[in-house]
Amino acid sequence: MRQTIRRYSSRPVSESLLQSLLEEAARAQTMGNLQLYSVVVTRDAEMKQQLAPFHFNQPMVTNAPVVLTFCADYHRTTEWALQRKGHPGYGNFLSYQNAATDALLFCQRFCDLAESLGLGMCFLGTTVYKPLEIIRLLRLPKLVMPVATLTLGWPDEHPAPTDRLPATAYVHQETYAPVTPETIDRDFAAREALPENQEFVRINHTETLAQIFTDIRYSAADCEAFSAELLQALRRQGFLE
Amino acid sequence: MRQTIRRYSSRPVSESLLQSLLEEAARAQTMGNLQLYSVVVTRDAEMKQQLAPFHFNQPMVTNAPVVLTFCADYHRTTEWALQRKGHPGYGNFLSYQNAATDALLFCQRFCDLAESLGLGMCFLGTTVYKPLEIIRLLRLPKLVMPVATLTLGWPDEHPAPTDRLPATAYVHQETYAPVTPETIDRDFAAREALPENQEFVRINHTETLAQIFTDIRYSAADCEAFSAELLQALRRQGFLE
After folding, report:
1. The pLDDT of residue B188 is above 90
2. Distance CA B114, CA A158 (A)
3. Is B164 within 8 Å of A33 when comparing Cβ atoms?
């Protein structure tokens, strides 16, 4: 069963293996076969050092043999069209949505393929928190936007799988079933009762597990501040014109 | 090698198989283990008929045994927090981005698992073109936004795989390598030379392959019109407050 891997052995990830996985991942669904994505491979230690603060100095960025930054990319397609007498018009939000979708499907297919060979990875959601810095460091041109980062290597740990909500929480038949106090209790009770989550509440000095997320980890103030930077980055990259 | 499947046999997709695939897909990476997604399962013939026009009447919607609409979902998490004395603040763009990411990773992992069992599917990118109608039909509450649709069934066709660009087009080492007329020729020549693409140009009465995309299929005017509806839907669902 898959699990996030944050510690990696010293065994290298060969360039030929990485290339073949990326090529196979590119079989993922893509809009009009345009492959509206790019991936930037970071192996250089100095580059990892520079990238780390934009991911809040999570140690995997410098410790993993490979860091992959997946980008929504309409730049290549636009340049192709300009070279071929086309009239590209992708400086808009729909085009960002389509390219981000392509990039995330490509990224997850890469994860599934890499894990099937025993590689381990950690998905860094922080990519969209400091996009302007990542854009500068990786020299991403207009119409290229980082949307996901993976740290990748051979596992040096075997963590137990974390829990998941029961399917009743997220699978709806025909229409969206209303969320009520009763369905909340039904779907969250097991998670809230886990000893590790009760300990998590204790050390965070909150009354409930939910408060750790809404009041500490993903607070409204933080979400609003990071939203502003994310929208600024989309504007800078030309996706909100 | 995977390929989009648009024709399905009469063999049913059992509910127990679908449930087990969705539960295994939920092992995908998810932000803070919050599982910021939902999926609406459409099996009812009448619902498929109503859904079809929002996907531009692509015949797979009514012909497939199952249609799955994957949604970015902060509603359930918000309701949970409100029931548990939390202070959720997810009516912002960053939160949409995070939930859409969770939903798309979940969707692609589902695809990889379903394909490994021989199921076939078609990914409908049209989901974000008519979101307001889909929201109404599936009764999606605030902070729930449809981001992807799959039609699913056992294959009744075995199409040849479509081409993909060479990895040089989308894999960059350390920094984004500039796109130039030379790299365009290097990366697009094989695609442009394919007999089926030359035929595609002929029947579309364009001069180049790129023009089919920029001038006909994904024109600037269409992208801008659909962008406006997509942003309106995000506003209506409370993600741009």
Report:
1. yes
2. 26
3. yes
Q: Which domain holds residue A30?
A: 15-159
What is the percent of chain B with per-residue pLDDT over 90, rounded to a whole number? 98
Q: A151: domain CATH number?
A: 3.40.109.10
Q: A149: left (phi > 0), else alpha (psi -120 to 50), else beta?
A: beta
- Mind listing the pLDDT tens digit for each residue in A151-171? 999 999 999 999 999 999 999
Which of B74, B111, B99 lies closest to A128, judged by CA?
B99
> Smallest Cβ distance to A169: which of B76, B140, B219?
B76
Q: Give A29-85 pLDDT, tens digit per residue.
A: 999 999 999 999 999 999 999 999 999 999 999 999 999 999 999 999 999 999 999
Could you tell me if residue B144 is inside a domain?
Answer: yes
Number of domains within chain B: 1
Q: What is the pTM of this model?
A: 0.98
A230 part of a folded domain: no
User: What ranges in A170-219 are assigned the alpha helix state H?
Assistant: 181-193, 195-204, 209-211
A100 vs A45, A182, A202, B154, CA distance in Å? 28, 36, 38, 29
Contact B41 A181 (CB under 8 A): no
Instruction: Choose the closest CB to B211 out of A39, A77, A85.
Output: A85
- Please report whether residue B82 resides in a domain: yes
Question: Residue A121: inside a domain, yes or no?
Answer: yes
In chain A, the residue whose alpha carbon lies closest to the alpha carbon of B27 is A2
ipTM of the complex: 0.98
Give the model confidence (pLDDT) of B114-131 as tens digits.
999 999 999 999 999 999
